[in-house]
Amino acid sequence: DVDAILPDLERVSDAWLEQKATHEKGFSLGVFDRDYLRNFDIAVVRVDGRIVAFANILTAGNGDFSVDLMRYDDAGPDGLMDFLFAEVMLWAKANGFRRMSLGMAPLSGLEPHAFATRWTRLAALMYRHGEPVYNFQGLRRYKEKFDPAWEPRYLATTSRLALPRVLLDVMTLISGG
């Protein structure tokens, strides 16, 4: 009964946004939207009866699943999200799911080797030094603890000159613009 816990989920979400000094994003990242969340199973973590973390679960007919919107209150115990992920994985296994997607780790895996393009070198530089803009390395480190099988994803453009505009458009979409 998601409707019954929506006020608690919103409280946790608002606390998370405030603690992270950020706003809702969108596009490739989950956003808090009551109508959206009503469509999914929701995993919650309670401490002393109070919800301190939650995530909605996306399922596919092929046995795959993923977690979309994840929020937690920093006032919760250490290891809260690890616990939530582990419990979701156990639930999924018990319900016949075979594989979990952890999503992407943007710009990771790009090596500025001798034959790399300027764009690859720039993206690798952004990954190494762009933490104030986006938690690239932290996101990769977090996902690494689950020993994922990384699969490359590519962005294709009509020309090298179009790439900056495409990247700007994608960043604008993700940031909620």
What are the key terms here?
single chain, 177 residues, 6 helices
At a glance:
The chain is α+β, with helices and mostly antiparallel strands. It is 40% helix and 16% strand.
Secondary structure: number of strands: 4
- Report the major sheet: 4 strands, mixed
Q: Low-confidence runs (pLDDT<50, min 5 residues)? A: none
Helicity level, as a percent range?
25-40%
Structural class: alpha+beta
As laid out across the biggest beta sheet, the strand order is 1-2-3-4
User: Any idea what the shape is?
Assistant: globular
Distance between the termini: 32 Å
Order of helices and strands: HHEEEHEHHH
Let me know the average pLDDT. 87
Radius of gyration: 18 Å
Work out the strand percent: 15-25%
Q: How would you describe the overall organization of this protein?
A:
- A four-stranded mixed beta sheet has the order 1-2-3-4.
- The two termini are 32 Å apart.
- The protein has helices at 2-19, 34-37, 80-94, 118-129, 136-144, 163-174; strands spanning 41-47, 50-59, 64-72, 99-101.
- By secondary structure, the chain is of the alpha+beta class.
- The radius of gyration is 18 Å and the shape is globular.
- The chain contains six helices and four strands, in the order ααβββαβααα.
- Helix content is 40%, strand content 16%.
